[in-house]
Design goal:
about 240 residues; alpha+beta; three-stranded antiparallel sheet
Amino acid sequence: MVPLDKEKHAGLKLNPVDGFGFASKLTYSLLGGSEVAEASKSFPIVFPQKSEKNEPILPMALLSFTKNENHFVGKDGKWKADYIPNHLKRYPFIFAAVPEKKNEFAVMIDTEAPQLNEKEGKSLFTEKGEPEKIVTQVKEFLSKFQVDILKTQKVLSLLEEKDVLISKEFKITQGDKKSALRGFRIVDMEKLAKLDDATLGKWVRNGLMGIIYSHINSFTNLRKVADSQGAAEKK
């Protein structure tokens, strides 16, 4: 990924293609809190293990039980699930924090993405080097996604604070081969039930409880993920 530059990328064009080949090896996709309810209808929603650096956590849509495989992407590159996470929609653009500048972000691009070329599509810049409408739209989308991410990280920090997340292992069988996928956490409903009413009331008002319920209900999609790769979940 490199910074979008009006001089270096003056002749670059965006030609949307119906392809998600870039996501064909993703085991999971990050989610903003506003997406969880809809994403939970298509994927199991889990949380990452706690990092040694105590980094903020985000919900994750589990796309596969096998590393480096994502069977929600067809051989033709088309997305096979009903919902497409914003984390994937934004490609080939992302926001990256500007070093030493608090709360400032720069638009980055993957210059090798099939959506970008210098022959077909919508120009990113005018002949005078000004951003075209498509760049403005991209920035708006990235900005909204970034706000969602920061808000979600803040509210999910309460899960860590109250220690209601526990490690989870998904055991699967694929033919004669058995394997286990680790590295995720889920909300422990017993721990959740022991929280005081004031905490639970706060979580209802700030939207965290909605995320938790969507997360729990999303486990009905475990079979969907297993079936998508010809595997059967071992209960």
